Predict the structure.
Amino acid sequence: MQNQGDPELLGQTVVVVGGSAGIGLETARRARALGAEVILTGRDPQRLKLAATELGAASFSAFDANDSAALENFFANLDSPIDHVMATAGGPYYATLADMDFDEARRGLQEHPMLMLGIARFAAGKIPARGSLTFMGGTGGRNPSQGVGIVAAMTAALPALTASLAVEIAPVRVNLIAAGFVDTPLSASLLGDDLEARRAELRANLPIARVVTPTDVAALAVHLMTNTALTGATYDIDGGQQLVSR
């Protein structure tokens, strides 16, 4: 039994899907600091091994989380119960209607909800009543503009799916983190040469006067794991980006 004053996640196991970099790695790092054992997954075996070695992870497994059979196999082969799953895998698809690749658009529409459904189905039976699933969404599609149609659809859909899953697999808790711009390797790859200009713009205009980092998101993710009153909700973390003109 955990005693008062013990680290909040002592004796618990956290699985991070997409845990080799960015928000996933930072969440695993914070969970580890709070006493958790961590299990990491990711697509890049070398990067994943480096992250697992750094953290002293209990185990790691390289596979594509969007492969439902591989995802099912991963959870089926876990030797012991787990307490929390954090999923950060997948990325947004931006394109105007005229330039849209329909195959990529289908991927963008299916990837996040199917990952959520797969984790809920394959992991819930291994998680105790105090445990949780935490997923990543975004806030960027709430203001209509050219090129964000697929992202806007997911921005609207994922909170509803989160709430439904929270009811269906209760007492396991399900929550969604909706992030604005976060300074991650994924953001860098999407913005390319425009990255520094975007950082400068956000520092100048956000109410917090700085850019949101993976550490900020990881703090929220771990809070959702440890506060057992929270389920079925979406939590924005964008530094006030929605409050200022874009």
